[in-house]
Amino acid sequence: MRRAGLGEGGSGNYVASGYSVYEEKNEHLQEGLRAKVEALKSLSIDIGTEVKYQNKMLDEMDTDFDSTGGLLGATIGRVKQLSRGSQTKLLCYMLLFCLFVFFVLYWFIKLR
């Protein structure tokens, strides 16, 4: 392949030595670019692995929240059933006890 400015004779040695300097510079830049591409590839693989792990954690949390929501719904249903009956005094005691436990936990955490 013939390049512009590279002649067969005369000042060809001067131009050829300039050409090799450019080749060396290009190879050096190419190696730097290759290293950067490898770093980006490694980073993107790590990001992909982290995304898969986070998606797995989110799926597990979704399952846990669904089961907790079901349990909470059943508990609320029982409390409503208690409030409809003649056991309102028992319901008041239960609510007061829950408030007491809440304030004791709040006080314990606040002192910590």
From TrEMBL:
One GO cellular component, as annotated: Golgi apparatus
Family per record: Belongs to the BET1 family.
Subunit structure: Interacts with SNARE complex members GOSR2, SEC22B and STX5. Interacts with LMAN1/ERGIC53. Interacts with STX17.
Gene3D superfamilies (UniProt xref): 1.20.5.110
Predominant localisation class: membrane
Keyword Mitochondrion among record annotations: no
InterPro entries found in the cross-reference section: BET1_SNARE (IPR039899), T_SNARE_dom (IPR000727)
Transmembrane feature ranges: 90-109
Keywords of the record: Coiled coil, Endoplasmic reticulum, ER-Golgi transport, Golgi apparatus, Membrane, Phosphoprotein, Protein transport, Transmembrane, Transmembrane helix, Transport
Database matches in PROSITE patterns: T_SNARE
Organism for this UniProt entry: Menidia menidia
Function: Required for vesicular transport from the ER to the Golgi complex. Functions as a SNARE involved in the docking process of ER-derived vesicles with the cis-Golgi membrane.
Name the record gives this protein: BET1 homolog
PANTHER family linked: GOLGI SNARE BET1-RELATED (PTHR12791)
Statement: the UniProt record of this protein carries the keyword Lipid biosynthesis: no
